């Protein structure tokens, strides 16, 4: 059911809107002021917001500013209710990110038409995004054989060499080639696991997006434990600097661990042993979000390379195949973060390393 949030300080108008929209089949929540409206928006994640402009404490402009700056809410269609018909104020609202204006007094048909128009446009955008995701998924399937060829070739080539020269090699030579086979086989397994994980994310994304009341959560300390295990596994524990502030975040534990695993794998892959890799976690943005940071002191990237990593899989140029290995892992991280209404930022400089910030909702924020 479509959820609409009405933010209106006039009791009669608020009640009339609630009744009217409920009769039309919408699931309606109502708030008597801007502060309560923002709290409700974060709690129920509505499909559309109708908000009065002139309100005490936090007016419509303030509500709009909070909504558009919040990574969990910024795409929600926003309609202003106002008695002011001054053109400059209307232009100000549209520039600030409002989708439409309804001028008081308004008719029932004017209101419903504006709502239908905004919801239809929003639905079209969602459908376009879904079509894009399907194309991206198809492109991933087409690229998968190419990604498998190199490690598969190493497995076949070195195992065949061992088979043909078993009687000529000493124990050390056998161990070295067996190690190469093992690493290549492990890489094959990782690529296939990430591929299956990526497909599973597509299947579960809508279900996660629709969860509005009891969101899954986990203790961020699980990230610190995995970071230590990953450091030992990759023989980089001496390089790893871990400092994770305690918090409970709105994300299932297996998704949180996948984020840490993929980001640390990239950090270790593109930095030399003996250089520091930082893993930090702390409250951020006025304690509204939790920021998990993975930073390496490796080769770093150009702005174009960063853009390639942030681009969908199908848009990664073939010339940047050296970084394509990490592209699927990073796309998995992006998908997970977006599904749970967070955001991801990459900061990098050639020769100075790369820093990736993942911001997640704190548990209880929407309660």
Q: Mean pLDDT, nearest integer? A: 83
What is the helical fraction, as a range of percent? Answer: 40-55%
- Which of globular, elongated, flat, extended, rod-shaped describes the shape? elongated
Strand runs, count: 12
The count of helical stretches stands at 10
How are the strands of the biggest sheet laid out side by side? Answer: 2-1-3-4-5
Kindly report the CATH topology of the largest domain: Heat Shock Protein 90
Q: What is the CATH architecture annotation of the largest domain?
A: 2-Layer Sandwich
Biggest β-sheet, characterized? 5 strands, parallel
The SS-based structural class is: alpha/beta
Q: Determine Rg (CA atoms, Å).
A: 25 Å
CATH class annotation of the largest domain:
Alpha Beta
Domain unit count: 2
Spans of at least 5 consecutive residues with low confidence: 208-213, 314-326
N-to-C terminal Cα separation, in Å? 20 Å
How large is the share of residues in beta strands?
A: 15-25%
CATH-level-4 superfamily name of the largest domain:
Histidine kinase-like ATPase, C-terminal domain
Order of helices and strands: EHEHEHEHEHHEHEEHEEHHEE
What report would you give on this structure?
By secondary structure, the chain is α/β, with parallel strands linked by helices. The chain has two domains: 3-106, Response regulator (Rossmann fold), CATH 3.40.50.2300; 214-367, Heat Shock Protein 90, CATH 3.30.565. It is built from ten helices and twelve strands. A five-stranded parallel beta sheet has the order 2-1-3-4-5, with helices on both faces. A hairpin with a 4-residue loop joins β9 and β10 (289-296). α5 (108-165) packs antiparallel against α6 (171-210) and α9 (303-310) crosses α10. The longest helix has 58 residues, at 108-165. The model is unreliable at 208-213 and 314-326 (pLDDT under 50).
């Amino acid at each position: 059911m479509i959820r609409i949030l009405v933010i209106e300080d006039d009791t009669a108008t608020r009640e009339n809107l609630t009744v009217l929209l409920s009769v039309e089949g919408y699931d309606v929540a109502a708030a008597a002021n801007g502060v309560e409206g923002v709290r409700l928006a974060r709690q129920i994640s509505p499909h559309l917001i109708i908000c009065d402009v002139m309100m005490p404490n936090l007016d419509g402009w303030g509500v709009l500013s909070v909504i558009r700056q919040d990574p969990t809410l910024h795409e929600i269609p926003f309609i202003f209710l106002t008695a002011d018909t001054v053109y400059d104020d209307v232009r100000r609202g549209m520039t600030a990110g409002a989708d439409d204006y309804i001028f008081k007094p308004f008719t029932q048909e004017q209101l419903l038409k504006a709502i239908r128009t905004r919801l239809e446009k929003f639905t079209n955008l969602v459908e376009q995004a879904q079509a894009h995701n399907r194309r991206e998924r198809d492109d991933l399937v087409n690229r998968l054989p190419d990604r498998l060829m190199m490690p598969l070739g190493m497995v076949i080539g070195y195992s065949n060499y061992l088979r043909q020269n078993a009687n000529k090699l000493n124990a050390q030579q056998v161990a070295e080639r067996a190690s190469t086979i093992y690493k290549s086989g492990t890489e094959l397994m990782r690529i296939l696991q990430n591929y299956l994980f990526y497909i599973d994310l597509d299947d579960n994304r809508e279900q996660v997006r629709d969860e509005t009341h009891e969101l899954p959560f986990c203790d961020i300390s699980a990230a610190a434990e995995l970071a230590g295990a990953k450091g030992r596994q990759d023989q980089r524990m001496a390089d790893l600097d871990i400092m994770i502030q305690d918090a409970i975040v709105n994300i299932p534990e297996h998704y949180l661990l996948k984020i840490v695993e993929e980001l640390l794998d990239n950090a270790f892959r593109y930095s030399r042993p003996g250089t520091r890799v930082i893993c930090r976690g702390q409250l951020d943005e006025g304690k509204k979000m939790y920021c998990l940071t993975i930073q390496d002191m490796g080769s770093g990237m150009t702005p174009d390379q960063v853009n390639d990593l942030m681009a969908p899989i199908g848009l990664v140029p073939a010339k940047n195949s050296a970084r394509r290995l990490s592209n699927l892992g990073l796309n998995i991280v992006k998908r997970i973060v977006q599904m749970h209404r967070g955001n991801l930022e990459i900061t990098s400089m050639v020769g100075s390393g790369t820093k990736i910030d993942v911001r997640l909702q704190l548990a209880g924020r929407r309660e």
